[in-house]
Amino acid sequence: MIYPNSYRVGMSSLGFQLVYALLNKNDTYVCERFFLPEKGDSLLSVESGRELTQFPLIFISVSFEHDYLHIVEILSQGGISPLAKDREDRISGRMPLVICGGVATFMNPAPLAPFVDLFLIGEAEPFLEKVTDYLVREFKEGKRLEILHGVSMQYEGCYAPALYTPVYNDGHLTEHRAARELPSRIKKVFLDRCSKAAHSQLLSPLAEFSDLFLTELGRGCSRGCRFCAAGFIYRPPRLWDGDAVVAGIAERSGDISRVGLLGMEMADTAELDILSVYLGESGCALSFSSLRADRLSPSLLDLLAKSNLKSVAIAPDGCSERLRLVINKGLDERDIVRAAERLVTAGIYKLKIYLMIGLPTETEEDLNEAIQLVEKIKEKIDPIGRLRGRLCEIMISINCFTPKPWTPFQFHPFGVSEQLPRGEYRNREEVVGELKKRLNILKKGFRIYSNVHVNHDKPDNVLFQAVLARGDRKLADVLLEMVKYGIPWKQAMKRKGLTAEQYALCGFDESDYFPWSIIDHSIKQSYLWREYKKGFEAKKSEPCDTLECRKCGVCHG
Ligand code: SF4
Fold first, then answer.
1. Pocket of ligand 1, candidates 238, 540, 546, 548: which has the most ligand atoms within 8 Å of its Cβ, to mutate?
2. If we measure between CA atoms, which residue out of 78, 108, 3, 112 comes closest to residue 480?
């Protein structure tokens, strides 16, 4: 099994750990891990130091677009033809079956499709073991395409790109064509309930969260922030019941006393209170990377104070009150300032604030409001810091907004404020230049404050991420070219006659067929379009109520 990034990053991925544990449950086969080697290191399995060509079934777990290139690098370095069409019909270590899953693939598998024999679309628990058993049974005797056909017919969530042909009309993708007996779209598989919440399987001193036992509170998110892919592709939002969460936490070994909870955004205050009390009574410190500014109950703050946690992030995301309505964040300035004050009172010394630029409708006025927001936060937290003899640092992280598939903003061009008509586009240099200008306004604005630090991503790099997020199969050639010749993405795209404009800088409309339309999340495109339009009117949408609601098409379908 490959995680296409370093050991440190891979071992911090709960999804990767979960799949690794599921694959090793069966006594008849063994799963070993590969990570992107450090410069000069060989590509060998962690467990037994074997080469990649010793494994006839290769599973890849991919979460982020920036790891796509690493997949091509790892397969090439491991002596395996990266393109699936170059691998022989007979499956062997040198000609393995490459199976790929992970959140990036159920958002949009297209740019990776030419490298992959089989995508497993969805959450692993309900189908990974069954599909793997099938493949293990069949691979020695069967031929590649027959096995892929068989598994696709038998199990939901199986997408074999070789069995589906993208059809273009006038340069526009219009459909994926497949044999009649195959499903025309690939239904995402999801876990509807669990008796034990997913949790860390292995803690390693070399991992990013080395002494932190991660446990899920649920999956998905009910808030419907219009930019956030996780809030849509993990629908319906599910909150595990308290017993399942406690059962998950109870699996930690006795010497682990720091528990990280995932999914804090969704949990309601009463549940967080129960968990806070449980963790406090079990002598556990609590940790989380980010939490909703409107979810800070007294018992949570109390546990936080006892947990010795020094750094917490809050995510206004939109720079202004109006933009937070555009993105449906559901947080107002008062919530954010009050949360900062309460967190610092509870002992936090470093407050991270996440902001995005390049959101639909954004103007310089919105950016100025972000600067004023930080000023208001400082007015509240600096006196607390002075009293205890140490001011709280504010770390502002500014990211360029990337329009992601399956979100209402999937119709929106990268880095452009206004909606563009279908097919109209903005020039790359112009858009990147404007984003840099916005970054500079914010950086200059924050510079006047002491103890405020800024980090940000590079608009040009994020643009390539947006291209990959929205891309089709043609981008596989770009990735191959980049690995083969070590050239930057812009040069590789030019060589292949492709442009960032066609993928990420143009307008789309409700009727468009996208590379990711092959996946079926049960979300109606008309719903996403309505939400997109509502964003432009800065209108709020209510959080999911899965008992009643039928709005997007996922529940009660
Ligand atoms: S149908 Fe309603 S409650 Fe269910 S996921 Fe869609 S918006 Fe949320």
1. 546
2. 112
Is the shortest distance between the CB of 50 and ligand 1 below 6 Å? no
Please give the average per-residue pLDDT across 39-58, as a whole number. 96
Residue with token string 């590079």: 458
- Site to substitute for ligand 1 among 188, 328, 549, 556, most atoms within 8 A of C-beta: 549
| Pocket flag, ligand 1, residue 359 (CB < 6 Å) | no
Nearest CA to ligand 1 atom 5: 236
* DSSP assignment string, 93-144: SSSPEEEEESHHHHH--GGGGGG-SEEE-B-STTTHHHHHHHHHHHTTTSBH
For the chain, the helix, strand and coil percentages under 3-state DSSP, each to the nearest 5: 40, 15, 45
* Architecture of the domain whose range is 192-309: 2-Layer Sandwich (3.30)
Torsion sign over Cα 436, 439, 440, 441:
positive
Kindly report, residue by residue over 226-243, the tens digit of the pLDDT.
999 999 999 999 988 888
- C-alpha dihedral sign at 150, 156, 162, 166: positive
Contact criterion met (CB below 8 Å) for 225 and 327: yes
pLDDT band for position 202 (50/70/90)?
confident
Q: Structure tokens of 235?
A: 């629908």
Half-sphere exposure of 557 (CA within 13 A, CB side): 11
Domain boundaries, the chain: 2-187, 192-309
Q: Is 303 in the pocket of ligand 1 (CB under 6 A)?
A: no
